[in-house]
Design goal:
The protein is α/β, with parallel strands linked by helices and about 160 residues long. It is about 30% helix and about 15% strand. It has a 5-stranded mixed β-sheet with strand order 2-1-5-3-4, with helices on one face. The protein starts with a strand and ends with a strand. The chain binds FE2/S2 (inorganic) cluster (2 copies).
Length: about 160
């Protein structure tokens, strides 16, 4: 089954087995920011963007990806300078073991692409599906709010 879609800015054709998931495909492409956690849509470690919305890649079958725009954290990275949100997580101590961090960063990226005022409740809601064993969530919320409220209105 040949599936065509956009992956991190490139048009790709994937030969996917029926029933295979986007998580399996992305890790097969060595996009290791997409973590293989629970495999059941519960931990958020495999969070990616599909048409700018945060989605658990383990729940997406490859046949559903046709024509979609897929983004993983690799599309945001440069080797010279960390993107602003990653820098904010770093400075805030919002990443410890880091297993959940790519998913968290993409969840807040999806929030950033939405219109409207950013609130602390909105950030917490955006991170609701990203389980973290290390940080207690306070630092990630602070780090995300700091960046998301710089350029537009914010309510705490
Ligand atoms: S691995 Fe996909 S939500 Fe846990
Ligand atoms: S930083 Fe370790 S699970 Fe979140």
């Amino acid at each position: 089954m040949i599936i065509q879609f956009e992956l991190n800015g490139r048009l790709v054709s994937a030969d996917a087995a029926p029933g295979s998931t986007l998580l399996e495909y992305l890790r097969g492409e060595e996009l290791y920011s997409v973590k293989h956690g629970c495999d059941h849509g519960e931990c958020g470690a495999c969070t990616i963007l599909v048409n700018s919305r945060s989605v658990n890649a383990c729940l997406v079958l490859m046949h559903a990806v046709e024509g979609k725009k897929i983004e993983t954290l690799e599309s945001f990275s440069t080797h010279e300078q960390l993107p602003e949100m990653q820098e904010s997580f770093l400075q805030a101590g919002a990443a410890q073991c880091g297993f959940c961090t790519p998913g968290m960063l993409l969840s807040v990226e999806a929030l950033d692409r939405e219109d409207g005022v950013v609130t602390e409740a909105g950030v917490k809601d955006a991170l609701n599906g990203n389980l973290c064993r290390c940080t207690g969530y306070v630092k990630p919320v602070e780090a995300a709010l700091k960046v998301l409220t710089q350029d537009r209105g914010a309510l705490r």
